[in-house]
UniProtKB/TrEMBL annotation, chain A:
ABC transporter domain location: 7-243, 258-501
Domain of life: Bacteria
Species of the source: Nocardioides pini
UniProt xrefs under PANTHER family: CARBOHYDRATE TRANSPORT ATP-BINDING PROTEIN MG119-RELATED, GALACTOFURANOSE TRANSPORTER ATP-BINDING PROTEIN YTFR
Name this polypeptide is given: Sugar ABC transporter ATP-binding protein
InterPro entries the record matches: AAA+_ATPase (IPR003593), ABC_carbohydrate_import_ATPase (IPR050107), ABC_transporter-like_ATP-bd (IPR003439), ABC_transporter-like_CS (IPR017871), P-loop_NTPase (IPR027417)
Keywords: ATP-binding, Nucleotide-binding, Repeat, Transport
GO molecular function, one term: ATP binding
Keyword field contains ATP-binding: yes
UniProtKB/TrEMBL annotation, chain B:
Naturally occurring in which organism (per UniProt): Nocardioides pini
Keywords, sorted A to Z: Cell membrane, Membrane, Transmembrane, Transmembrane helix
Lipid bilayer topology: Multi-pass membrane protein
Any Pfam family hit: BPD_transp_2
InterPro entries in the record: ABC_transp_permease (IPR001851)
Transmembrane segments: 49-67, 79-98, 104-122, 129-152, 158-178, 199-220, 251-269, 281-298, 304-322, 334-351
Domain of life: Bacteria
Name this polypeptide is given: ABC transporter permease
Subcellular localization, as worded in the UniProt entry: Cell membrane
Length: 503, 357
């Protein structure tokens, strides 16, 4: 192994409106090593690799390649240096063939005419090198299994002169045998001097394949260059969870009304292939948290009980009345509200005024014979935005112009206006800065105190533990733990959540 | 520094480079603080002004080239009378496009409605009973076609482009079958008398267009239906998760445009005193063009009735000016194409400015 760094990133800062995504990241990768990037959801791993692949431009900091400063201005520039990234969500064109995908953008051609036989030959060589000669070069990619698609992405990276390969949770779609094969391929590559940046939540895998580890937390590097074989797991979990930001959680009510009848009851809810056998009951005034990894089925559980997805089995009852399956209007009518995960694409009408975003679920209340009383709409919206302290004030403002935290308050105001009895919050503080987070936590707690039943989904374990009264841990579509939030700590949840398939 | 100059002389704003964006914001802020205007009008206000200027330019060209033959009350009413039926279709089209869809079948539906309302059977019933039968026939056929479109799009999940393309072919074909490709002459006197009436010198057709435009404006800007249309077109997923029945709303939008086609067919039948399977040919293009140059976003979520009306008037006046100068329709088509491209380029630039603020 060569000790001179191939890639050095120093003091990388990336800001998004209202949020500091990266606040000074250090990373140093040597040729021929597998460098693992570790951190909780939202720690900044994805943002960092997007900077590496030049999808994002850093606001501050420098990137050195073989000791020389470089600017990664376009994805092409990154590729020319030899940086290839394989994303969690594969970026292949499903209707093109395997060979066409591998050489997309750098097709082999003579005077504009593609060299079909040469392309196929080189594709077969690449696939053979990856130990997957059984994949047909002429088959369309959309008809391959996820594992095979990942091999095609790897072949695509290898078809160019790759010197640094970034793998973002490559094992998420693979079974045990396929993971073993992936590791074999990675070892072959590193033996040839290729550097690999490997991102995974599964500590066991990192133990097996990694050389050194960099730990990110809240957008900053908390440790870098740790030798895998000399760092105990407890140390890693401590680094990932060690608090640098003080989350301010409102105190739980002293005597939560654990005796009342549940307002929301979910029995045996199942969405085929995603989650199964979910039982849940929430009483008025109670906050229940769902913790788990991205892809574990948390958001799907919320969306299914809200009626946005049609369950394959199970029932949802609100105040004793069964909801019609797969009908959002039925859920809304019964008093259920959802603040969705993707606030911008699922929750808001970005190019419309704050007030019309707030009243969109309650229009009937402001209309007589279908005619809207927009003065009343503005008045009620103003009262709500003032009580929630949405800044800047003014309900005619376009929602697009608000920060993440204030946008989230607008979504909450919508359901407040509807007097909803069950509130489902999916990643309520994603993209929200620290100050506004505390306000949102306090708001959720005060809603619960007023008798609303709340279900919170969050990737941030400390958020679930700090906010909720009761916690359910979800792994791979099943609830693996349920208990009061006060009786479980973060590292236990991480243990439950990350218990990987690799032994 | 620039603040000083602008406060002294508002005209100076145009001399600097950056204030182009500022003027948009200022207008928006002004309209917002006005309260009653509402966010929608404010966004399209600047654009509408630009459109009115364009319309005035065309009028000026008319006055210069054709003089009194253009600038007379008679000619004005003729232009309006000819624009009115297409205008009604364009109002309906504004709703569909604002709601995130498109309807290519409007011209064919107009033809089918015109034929259905003037068949021998319909007209006999109209003579025996009342001419209102013809009105109901046209409206029912239009709404029916819209219903088929809407159900296929909302529940069948066929994309609007394909669904309405199929309706375009089928409805015109059906109109040809029913009419046996013959022009059907209107013989019901009551119908002819009613629709060719004037109110204080203004043709009834023009009044119908005005009423539909006003009703359309109220419906889009002041009702639950209109607000939901903006939501469904702007972000269907968010609308669905907010509890709006997006599928049902989509169906209603296509039924609405179908009804507009039925009404337009009646206006066309009365103007030409015939029903024909060739009525409304290429109206889908004229209607979409008027809506788009009016400032309604082709991707949905923002719509302006005022813009559509001005858009219709621009094309109608342009046609009139060309005809008065004995230019053929081909030159006119080229000019139309140019106007569409320029308007859309402008619209995109404005959209980009709005996003960067």
């Amino acid at each position: 192994m060569n000790d001179a760094p191939l890639l050095t990133m120093r003091g990388i800062v990336k800001r998004f409106p209202g949020v500091l995504a990266l606040g000074g990241v250090e990373l140093e990768v040597r040729a021929g090593e597998v460098h693992c990037l570790l951190g909780q959801n939202g720690a900044g791993k994805s943002t960092l690799i997007k900077i590496l692949s030049a999808s994002y431009q850093p606001d501050e900091g420098e990137i050195l390649w073989e000791g020389k400063p470089v600017t990664l201005s376009t994805p092409q520039a990154a590729m020319e240096l030899g940086i290839s990234t394989i994303y969690q969500e594969l970026d292949l064109v499903p209707d093109l063939s395997v060979a066409e995908n591998i050489f997309l953008g750098h097709e082999l051609s003579t005077a504009g005419f593609s060299q079909r036989s040469e392309t196929l030959r080189r594709t077969r060589d690449l696939l053979a090198r990856l130990g997957h000669s059984e994949i047909q070069a002429t088959r369309s990619v959309g008809r391959l299994s996820p594992a095979a698609q990942q091999i095609v992405s790897m072949a695509r990276a290898l078809s160019q002169d790759t010197r640094l390969l970034v793998l973002d949770e490559p094992s998420a779609v693979l079974d045990q045998g396929e993971v073993d094969n992936l590791f074999r391929v990675i070892r072959d590559l590193t033996a040839e001097g290729v550097a690999v940046v490997y991102i995974s939540h599964r500590l066991e895998e990192i133990r097996k394949i990694g050389d050194r580890i960099t730990v990110l937390k809240d957008g900053s590097t908390v440790a870098t260059g740790l030798a895998v074989d000399q760092t105990p797991t407890s140390e890693l979990i401590k680094l990932m969870t060690g608090r640098s930001i003080e989350y301010v959680f409102p105190p739980r009510s002293d005597a939560p009304p654990m005796t009342g009848d549940p307002i929301l009851e979910v029995i045996g809810l199942e969405l085929a292939g995603v989650f199964t056998g979910v039982d849940l009951s929430v009483r008025p005034g109670e906050i229940v948290g769902l913790a788990g990894l991205v892809g574990a089925g948390r958001s799907e559980i919320l969306e299914t009980l809200y009626g946005a997805r049609r369950p394959s089995a199970g029932t949802v009852r609100v105040a004793g009345k069964e909801l019609r399956r797969g009908s959002v209007p039925a859920a809304v009518k019964a008093g259920v509200g959802l603040a969705p995960e993707e606030r911008k694409s699922q929750g808001l009408l970005l190019d419309q005024a704050i007030y019309s975003n707030i009243t969109v679920s309650t229009l009937g209340r402001f209309s007589r014979f279908g005619l809207l009383d927009s003065r009343a709409e503005r008045k009620r919206s103003t009262e709500l935005t003032e009580s929630l302290d949405v800044r800047p004030a003014g309900v005619d403002r376009l929602v697009r112009l608000l920060s993440g935290g204030n946008q989230q308050k607008v979504v909450l105001a919508r359901w407040l206006l509807r007097d909803c009895r069950v509130l489902l919050l999916d990643e309520p503080t994603r993209g929200v800065d620290v100050g506004a987070r505390a306000e949102i936590y306090a708001l959720v707690r005060s809603l619960a105190d007023s008798g609303v039943a709340v279900v919170v989904v969050s990737s941030e374990v400390e958020e679930v533990l700090g906010l909720a009264d009761r916690v359910l841990v979800v792994r791979e579509g099943r609830v693996v733990h349920e208990g009061p939030a006060g009786e479980i700590d973060e590292s236990r949840v991480l243990d439950l959540v990350m218990e990987g398939k690799v032994a | 520094m620039s603040e000083q100059s602008t406060s002294r002389d508002t005209g100076a704003v145009e001399n600097t480079v950056t204030p182009a964006k500022d003027t948009v914001t200022v207008e928006r802020a002004a309209a917002e603080s006005g309260g009653g205007g509402g966010g929608l009008m404010s966004g399209s206000f600047g654009r509408n002004l630009g459109l009115v200027v364009a319309l005035l330019l065309i009028c000026a060209a008319g006055v210069i080239t054709a003089g009194d033959r253009f600038a007379s009350v008679d000619n004005l009413l003729t232009v309006l009378r000819f624009a009115s039926a297409l205008g009604v279709v364009a109002i309906g089209m504004t709703f569909v496009i604002t709601g995130g869809g498109i309807d290519l079948s409007v011209g064919a539906i107009v033809a089918l409605c015109s034929v259905w309302a003037t068949t021998f059977a319909t007209q006999s019933m109209a003579t025996d009973f009342h001419w209102i039968v013809m009105v109901f026939a046209a409206l029912a056929v239009g709404a029916g076609c819209g219903l088929v479109n809407g159900v296929l799009i909302a529940y069948g999940k066929v994309v609007p482009f394909i669904t309405t393309l199929a309706m375009l072919a089928a409805a015109r074909g059906l109109a040809e079958i029913i009419s046996e490709r013959r022009t059907q002459i209107v013989t019901v006197d009551g119908f002819k008398v009613f629709f060719s009436a004037d109110v204080f010198g203004v043709p009834l057709l023009v009044i119908i267009f005005a009423l539909v435009a006003i009703a359309g404006w109220v419906l889009l800007n002041r009702t639950t239906f209109g607000r939901r249309t903006l939501a469904v077109g702007g972000n269907p997923e968010a609308a669905r998760l907010a509890g709006i029945n997006v599928n049902r709303h989509t169906v209603m939008l296509y039924v609405l445009v179908g009804l507009c086609c039925g009404l337009a067919a009646l206006m066309l039948v009365s103007r030409t005193t015939t029903g024909s399977s060739t009525h409304g040919t290429l109206w889908e293009l004229d209607a979409i063009a008027a809506v788009v140059i009016g400032g309604t976003l082709l991707t949905g979520g923002r719509g302006t009735i005022v813009g559509t009306v001005v858009g219709v008037l621009i094309f109608a006046t342009l046609g009139n000016v060309f005809t008065l100068n004995n230019q053929d329709t081909s030159t006119q088509a080229v000019a139309k194409g140019l106007i569409i491209v320029v308007a859309v380029l402008l619209q995109q630039r404005l959209a980009r400015n709005a996003n960067s603020t």
